[in-house]
């Protein structure tokens, strides 16, 4: 029987980031302990950096967001920290989007467990609790702040899978809607839709959990309020979307996704498409599976004047379609959740190719 764990501590509200110093000081046992910061590179020369309680002994990494996390990136951070004798921090603080939040989680786990990041891609493989960690999202939608995974790609094996573990969950969150003010409009939409898509996939699947369903329904309702409103980025709507993202992340603990995420993962592994835009591109081709949600999604995109890219997989060679097929149908759990155990009878190579061409 699954025994669900959710986030234990969170602070929510405008300017809650000002509490970071006190939270860290309460945790710091002796004077010369240090913190490792992972901050989204967007904030490199921004005011936020000057507001952080970074001490001389602390280490600050700016996390690039051109590539989504690879296992080698996580191993490299670990090695750098070992070399500079900074591999035993009392806290890790991650401030940014899903990429940065997942990086913080993975490094916290790998510092206290032997081997490499790729050894822990899977379910419940982490043996030792990670470093105490604080997550501070600056964009809303993936639910990475609340989930028990951190998505990474092992380029060598082609496996895109996280460290699914209770130890991957943040010990403390600071949810400050002020931080999402500067997100570019398109990115705000794509990432915000991750929560919507996750939740509609769960609610349309055969595996159901009353707790997951309740989180999902509320998250969807908030997302619709935000994206059917005139100004999706008003103060009120950024606050609502932050709540929706958190609830969507909680829902992941008790639910499976459906068709969209496996197709989006195919795009990501074969064409390097980022997760959230990949989901939106996949929605272009999902009318036959999710007709009502497809209409609702398109309505929200139109309302916000967001153009979903079209045609990125419409003209590829047979070899690439085969790769796309393989990296999509490998996702057994979500696809059988959506279509039943015999999903491969529906998702033949021909059918999958047709779906990619429609995107
Ligand atoms: P991201 O980290 O990919 O960042 C997207 C862009 O937004 C970047 O250019 C970043 O610099 C910018 N940005 C972030 N905050 C900003 C701000 N306040 N102002 C201006 N620019 C800002 O964002 P994402 O879409 O949240 O994350 C995607 C990642 O999350 C993927 O790697 C995906 O695999 C992962 N993910 C994880 C989970 C999980 O449960 N762990 C779930 C879904 C997705
Ligand atoms: Zn997602």
Q: Unreliable runs, pLDDT <50, ≥5 residues?
A: none
Proportion of strand residues: 5-15%
CATH-defined topology of the largest domain: Dehydroquinate synthase-like, alpha domain
SS elements, strand count:
10
Structural class by helix and strand composition: alpha/beta
> How many structural domains does the protein architecture include?
2
Strand order of the largest sheet: 1-10-6-4-2-3
Task: Using the coordinates above, name the CATH class of the largest domain.
Answer: Mainly Alpha
- Characterize the main sheet: 6 strands, parallel
Tell me about this structure.
There is one protein chain. The protein has 359 residues and is an alpha/beta fold. The chain has 14 helices and ten strands. It has helices at residues 20-27, 47-51, 71-83, 98-110, 185-203, 210-227, 235-252, 260-271, 275-283, 291-303, 318-329, 332-339, 343-346, 349-358; strands at residues 9-12, 35-40, 59-63, 91-96, 122-123, 133-137, 153-154, 159-160, 163-164, 172-175. A six-stranded parallel β-sheet has the order 1-10-6-4-2-3, with helices on both faces. A two-stranded parallel ribbon has the order 5-9. The protein has a two-stranded antiparallel sheet with strand order 7-8. A hairpin with a 4-residue loop joins strand 7 (153-154) and strand 8 (159-160). The longest helix has 19 residues, at 185-203. The radius of gyration is 20 Å and the shape is globular. The model has no long low-confidence stretch (mean pLDDT 96). Bound molecules: nicotinamide-adenine-dinucleotide and zinc ion (ZN). Residues 40, 42, 65, 68-69, 96-100, 102, 138-139, 141-144, 147, 149-151, 162, 179-180, 182-183, 187, 191, 194, 274-276 line the site of nicotinamide-adenine-dinucleotide. The site of zinc ion has 5 residues, from helix 5.
């Amino acid at each position: 029987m699954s025994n669900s764990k959710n986030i234990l501590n969170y602070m929510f509200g405008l300017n809650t980031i000002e509490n970071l110093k006190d939270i860290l000081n309460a945790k710091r046992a002796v004077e010369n302990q240090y913190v490792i910061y992972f901050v989204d590179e967007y904030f490199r020369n921004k005011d936020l950096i000057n507001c952080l309680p970074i001490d001389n002994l602390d280490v600050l990494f700016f996390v690039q967001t051109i590539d989504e996390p690879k296992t080698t990136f996580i191993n490299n951070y670990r090695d750098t920290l070992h070399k500079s004798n900074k591999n035993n921090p009392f806290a890790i603080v991650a401030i940014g989007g899903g990429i940065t939040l997942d990086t913080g989680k993975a490094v916290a786990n790998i510092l206290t467990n032997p081997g490499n990041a790729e050894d822990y891609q899977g379910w419940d493989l982490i043996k030792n609790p990670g470093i105490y960690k604080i997550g501070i999202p600056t964009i809303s939608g993936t639910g990475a702040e609340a989930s028990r995974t951190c998505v990474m790609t092992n380029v060598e094996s082609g496996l895109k899978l996280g460290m699914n573990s209770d130890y991957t969950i943040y010990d403390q969150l600071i949810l400050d809607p002020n931080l999402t003010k500067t997100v570019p409009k398109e990115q705000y939409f794509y990432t915000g839709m991750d929560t919507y898509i996750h939740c509609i996939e769960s609610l349309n699947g055969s595996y159901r959990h009353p707790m997951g369903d309740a989180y999902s329904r509320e998250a969807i309702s908030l997302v619709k309020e935000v994206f059917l409103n005139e100004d999706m980025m008003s103060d009120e709507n950024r606050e609502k979307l932050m709540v929706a993202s958190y609830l969507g992340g909680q829902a992941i603990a008790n639910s499976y996704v459906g068709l969209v995420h496996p197709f989006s993962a195919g795009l990501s592994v074969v064409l390097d498409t980022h997760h959230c835009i990949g989901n939106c591109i996949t929605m272009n081709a999902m009318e036959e599976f999710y007709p009502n949600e497809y209409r609702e999604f398109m309505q929200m995109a139109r309302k916000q004047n967001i153009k979903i890219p079209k045609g990125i997989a419409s003209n590829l060679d047979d070899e690439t379609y085969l790769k796309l097929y393989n990296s999509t149908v490998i996702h057994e759990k979500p696809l059988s959740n959506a279509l039943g155990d015999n999903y491969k009878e529906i998702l033949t190579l021909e059918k999958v190719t047709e779906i990619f061409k429609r995107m």
